[in-house]
Write a structure and sequence with these properties.
Elements: H1 2-13, E1 24-28, E2 37-38, E3 45-50, E4 53-58, E5 65-69, E6 73-76, H2 83-86, E7 92-100, E8 117-123, E9 132-137, E10 141-146, E11 150-158, E12 165-172, E13 176-181, E14 184-189, E15 208-210, E16 224-232, H3 238-243, H4 264-273, H5 290-298, H6 323-331, H7 349-367
Antiparallel strand pairs: 1-16, 2-3, 3-6, 4-5, 5-16, 6-15, 7-12, 7-16, 8-9, 8-15, 9-10, 10-11, 12-13, 13-14
Helix pairs in contact: 1-5, 1-7, 6-7
């Protein structure tokens, strides 16, 4: 009976705890193979707009899949979800991998102002003064723009065609703007002005997009591929930026979160046969027990609708944490059963009964 009380305690009490806000405020890893792309940090969605979207492309070595464009399109956040980026006035960092395709770039000719510019993240409404953007010229120069204030282009550092290159911009109120190419500082401009992040010249709050900025008539879409778009709410050092280029190598658990194991049955087989553990083992220590419930409910994602990873309760592969994840975990029979290697993988009726009772009480409480 004490196990039953313990499970309910964490369902009722820890459900109200929010996870601590991380310094990484946006991470699109482009592992989804259809629209929308889901931000791995806060669950924001970027939905395909206009034309030419490509999915499931080969990304930089070690970073899985990437996305690309072969026509004037983008993936757009909503106006409300864009607010956090419009409000970044200074002291932040944006980074991404980009691949300029020599076969696609000629398609951009005469498709609007600055068609030679390939902007991978920024304000996706025709030129306005309430935001910022970053991209790469077709000749390889990297640009960061404070809309309505200044455009900053590298002079001696370039992105090569048909090659994955990592680029970043650190925007500092003390040191100005520093552009990084493949983890090394390429150029610095001592421009410490805050971005003009009000409502802008069109008197409206604009939305941000991936793969293009300044809207469908501007032609500033990525002629190629891009991956791993990240935004931090602080200034990264050169060492920090260099670390973003290092993939997690040979981690079989990474498949739980990379979008390739969304089928519940295949996910269960992988957890059992490859990882050698139970559904519900959030910390992957080989057991499913109370510490795993502490971990997932403390993350604050339960029935929030926010994107969740395995360690935050996504055990059925739908990228969220809800009652369905608890169902598959307790039905798997591993709760407080020890390591999977030491016991036959047969669901224990007692565990399922306890879980069923718990869920009835949860539903009853929610109706009240």
């Amino acid at each position: 009976m004490h196990k039953f009380r313990f499970v309910l305690f964490f369902v009722f009490v820890f459900n109200g705890i929010n996870s601590i806000s991380a310094e990484l405020i946006l991470h699109f890893d482009m592992e989804q193979t259809t629209s929308p792309f889901v931000d791995r940090v806060g669950g924001l969605e970027a939905t395909a707009a206009d034309f030419g979207h490509l999915y499931g492309l080969e990304g930089p070595a070690g970073f899985g899949l990437a996305a690309g464009l072969e026509d004037n399109g983008s993936w757009q956040l909503t106006v409300d979800d864009s607010a956090v980026f419009r409000e970044l006035a200074n002291d932040f960092t944006v980074a991404a991998w980009i691949y300029l395709d020599s076969d696609t770039l000629p398609v951009k000719v005469d498709t609007g102002p600055n068609p030679g510019l390939n902007r991978f993240f920024g304000d996706d409404i025709a030129w306005d003064a309430d935001g910022w953007a970053m991209g790469v010229w077709e000749d390889g120069r990297v640009r960061f723009t404070k809309n309505g204030i200044v455009d900053l282009d590298t002079v001696d550092s370039f992105v090569e065609l048909d090659t994955w290159t990592h680029v970043a911009a650190a925007v500092s109120s003390d040191d100005g703007v520093t552009i990084y190419v493949d983890g090394e500082a390429a150029e610095n401009w001592f421009n410490v002005n805050d971005l003009n992040n009000g409502v802008g010249t069109n008197r409206e709050d604009d939305l941000y997009g991936l793969g293009r900025t300044y809207g469908p008539t501007q032609g500033q879409w990525v002629g190629g591929s891009f991956d791993e778009i990240r935004v931090y709410d602080h200034v990264l050092s050169e060492d920090d930026v260099a670390e973003l280029m290092i993939p997690v190598v040979d981690d079989p658990a990474a498949r739980l979160d990379d979008g390739t194991l969304t089928d519940p049955a295949a996910r269960a087989d992988y957890v059992h046969d490859v990882l050698g553990t139970w559904l519900g083992d959030a910390d992957l220590d080989g057991q499913f027990n109370s510490s795993d419930l502490v971990t997932v409910f403390t993350a604050g994602k339960y029935e929030s609708g926010d994107a969740a990873v395995w360690a935050e309760g996504d055990w059925n592969g739908d990228s969220t944490f809800g009652s369905g994840d608890l169902v598959v975990a307790f039905t798997d029979g591993g709760y407080e059963a020890g390591s999977r290697a030491a016991i036959a993988a047969v669901p224990e009726p007692s565990s399922c009964i306890l879980f069923g009772l718990g869920m009835l009480l949860v539903l009853k409480r929610r109706r009240r």
